[in-house]
Amino acid sequence: MILSLDQMAESRRALAGPLFAGLPGDAEISFEFFPPKTEKMEEQLWDAIVTLEPLGPRFVSVTYGAGGTTRERTHNTVSRISRETGIAAAAHLTCVDASCAEIDEIADAYWQAGVRHIVALRGDPPNAGGQFTPHPQGYASAAELVEGLRKRHPFEISVSAYPETHPEAASAQADIDFLKRKLDAGASRAITQFFFEPDTFFRFRDAVAASGVDPEIVPGIMPVTNFAAIQRMSKMTGTAVPEWLAHLFEGLDDRPAARQLVAATIAAEMCRRLYAGGVRQFHFYTLNRAELSYAICHLLGKRPIEAAKEAAA
């Protein structure tokens, strides 16, 4: 049998590396959780935190929505992480339905609780499909929020970035220009919306650099636990879902264990390719499920810190 040139190239690519997708060891990870609504969900969240803590994440973040109940749940979750674990906890904070004075009060409470990292976001409208309307006495944008937080306390601040452009942005360049405003206001890094092609991230990173700034841009990794849900989320965020991804999850609707195996493999391979392109930090959207994120990190060579120390001794 004579191989074609394409077959020979694919054969070389497949045989060039080991079957194990481990990275050299200098990659750093972080995880995102959402605040629990019920006692059972709180147990699931803390099981996830206990499982992932030994991997030594740089930080974990906790999401936040408009409304007093959500704010309180986020604050309680972040405060508990700070008290009961050795992980640096980052609290999401948005501009939605809050005055500057209310946000200052929340920021003060976080600072007093020992939280030193804020993920500053404009936030989505309370009603799906609606338009964001600033509070009359509130911050009108994430850039204003970053500036206000910086004046209040010397927080480490992360902001969002959109490799495929924010759905409300006038253009890709306008979106990058606004990212620059957030960075100029004092943000430390940008964490991206999820995406499914490494080249999507690389094109965005190059476009940001071409605009005259070189911030730390951390790719947000969303493991596909439910393909139908990912399709819905992608429509809301303007994220492209490639045909090959749909093909991989076809026929797995009633096979959750198989979906997890496929999801872990895809995410680990994407991280490996991002690493080859110079990425050293990865932010995983866990959806409060630990095992999938743990499996991906394991494939990438991340091990519990104590076990890694013992192996090196």
Report a brief summary of the structure.
48% of the residues lie in helices and 14% in strands. It is α/β, with parallel strands linked by helices.
Keywords:
single chain; 313 residues; alpha/beta; TIM Barrel; eight-stranded parallel beta barrel; 8 strands; 48% helix; 14% strand; globular
Order of helices and strands: HEHEHEHEHEHEHEHHHEHH
Number of strands: 8
Structural class: alpha/beta
Strands in their spatial order, largest beta sheet: 1-2-3-4-5-6-7-8
- Estimate the strand proportion: 5-15%
Overall form: globular
pLDDT < 50 stretches: none
> What is the CA-based Rg, rounded?
20 Å
**Termini gap:** 49 Å
Number of domains: 1
CATH fold-level name:
TIM Barrel
What is the CATH domain class?
Alpha Beta
Largest sheet: 8 strands, parallel, barrel
SS summary, helix count? 12
CATH architecture classification name:
Alpha-Beta Barrel
User: How much helicity do the residues have?
Assistant: 40-55%
Report the mean per-residue pLDDT as an integer. 88
Description:
- The relative contact order is 0.14.
- Strands 1-2-3-4-5-6-7-8 form an eight-stranded parallel barrel.
- The chain has one domain: TIM Barrel (Alpha-Beta Barrel).
- The model has no long low-confidence stretch (mean pLDDT 88).
- 48% of the residues lie in helices and 14% in strands.
- With 313 residues, it is an alpha/beta fold.
- It is globular, with a radius of gyration of 20 Å.
